[in-house]
Design brief:
420 residues; elongated; 2 domains; alpha+beta; 10% strand; Jelly Rolls
């Protein structure tokens, strides 16, 4: 039962951390900018699609497979409707196709750049991506995306056409429809996975990236099902006129990128949920900046005690002066005494109680232990490795100030004891 409760606490803390970071990072604004560049990239892409269909139409005069594929494209991607709405011209010349390709590359560069900027906020790093890499990245991502989308379009069109012309029985048609959907979802999942796994400078774990990419893909699918069911292009055309289709695409793209960035933020939160829980635990003991909602979400420390907790009986030594270890300790319960050798005599420096942090000096100063810490009562501590302490200080400015203040006070007491 306690294991289940700890898992529920972890899930609630992941959700809270995700939403908190999502709001603080202003990802709704990033989604709007990305949707705008997506619309600009889609315009020349549709021009190229028109040119490709014309080339396919010429090829269809002598090729049965080309005829089937062309019919599938018109049937499943509503090319006639797009032409009537003005999204694509009915005739596209070769020169226009070349211009469309150049324009597509330019706007796609902006699209990738907008996603990169959003990911730099979601996955903050001290270092920057190299200039050359940043400029050549779209030249790698865009062709990969086009190949995957192209394969999906061909497969989906062919499978959909076979189902539509009723060459197969109901059972096989149902199977092909399911396969059709899997092709689309698989393509989207692959693209999202590439973004989640490779775009952050510090790559997240592959399994976590794959799982979150799957959730993002399902969210996008449900979103477009919702739009297809409740929002019709005619509604927007009646309100916005000829721009109705553009408005609908822009709104749909905006919500799609909202979901895309939300799951990306969740991927980052998975790596920071322990740090967030530790921060709230430390600050709550000193009464600093923890709201009632945060107290409810992070109030139970059982999960942290299972992962980081250590117990010491009264009289046991937790830290010995001169040791090279760099683990920091948060005193969850009990009292400890601080002692230091001075002129061959062990001098008592003071006592620490529940909620105090100790042992961080060795890591921050890069030195050996400067004092001995002995349990005065039965104590429970949270043992924090150096990398966890570093993450805590990067994640929380209030906690960093508290650590620096405590370190300064401790150094002052040690100097006074040594001078005495």
């Amino acid at each position: 039962m306690s294991v289940l409760r700890n898992q529920l606490d972890w899930l609630l803390q992941v959700i809270f951390t995700t939403l908190r970071l999502y709001t603080r990072n202003g990802l709704a604004n990033h989604a709007a900018a990305t949707a705008f560049y997506f619309l600009l990239s889609a315009t020349p892409l549709l021009l190229l699609l028109s040119y490709a269909t014309q080339w396919l139409a010429n090829l269809a005069e002598t090729s049965v497979p080309a005829t089937i594929l062309l019919a599938a494209l018109y049937e499943h991607y509503h090319l006639d409707t797009l032409a009537e709405m003005g999204f694509i011209p009915r005739r596209a010349m070769l020169g226009a196709g070349g211009i469309g390709l150049v324009t597509l590359l330019l706007f796609s560069r902006k699209l990738v750049y907008a996603i990169e900027k959003a990911f730099a906020v979601i996955f903050p790093e001290d270092e920057k991506r190299r200039f050359v890499v940043s400029w050549t990245l779209p030249l790698v991502i865009i062709p990969i995306a086009f190949v995957l989308v192209g394969v999906a379009v061909v497969l989906r069109g062919a499978l959909g056409y076979l189902v539509a012309i009723e060459l197969l029985g109901p059972a096989r048609a149902l199977l092909l429809n399911a396969l059709n959907l899997l092709v689309v979802l698989g393509t989207v999942w692959t693209l999202v996975l590439i973004a989640y796994w490779r775009l952050p400078l510090t790559h997240p774990r592959f399994r976590q990236a794959a799982a979150l990419a799957l959730l993002a893909t399902l969210s996008l699918y449900l979103l477009f099902v919702f739009f297809d069911r409740f929002f019709q292009i005619d509604q927007y055309r009646s309100v916005y006129g000829a721009l109705g289709g553009v408005v609908l695409v822009l709104i749909a793209a905006y919500f799609a990128f909202l979901a895309f960035y939300l799951w990306a933020q969740c991927l980052y939160a998975l790596s920071k949920v322990d740090v967030a829980a530790l921060e709230k635990l430390f600050l709550s003991t000193s009464g600093e900046g923890v709201s009632r909602l945060e107290g409810y979400v992070f109030g139970r420390a059982d999960r942290l005690l299972v992962k980081y907790g250590q117990r010491y009986a009264a009289g046991e030594t937790i830290i010995r002066e001169g040791d090279s270890s760099q683990t920091a300790y948060f005193l969850y319960s009990g009292r400890v005494g601080l002692f230091k050798q001075s002129n061959g005599v062990q001098v008592r420096l003071g006592e620490l109680g529940e909620g105090d942090l100790f042992g961080e000096m060795a890591y921050l100063l890069g030195e050996r232990r400067t004092a001995t810490v002995v349990a005065q009562t039965d104590v429970v501590v949270l043992a924090l490795p150096p990398e966890t302490l570093e993450e805590l200080m990067r994640y929380s400015a209030p906690l960093s100030r508290r650590i620096i203040t405590a370190l300064s006070q401790r150094l002052m007491r040690m100097n006074q004891a040594a001078g005495g």
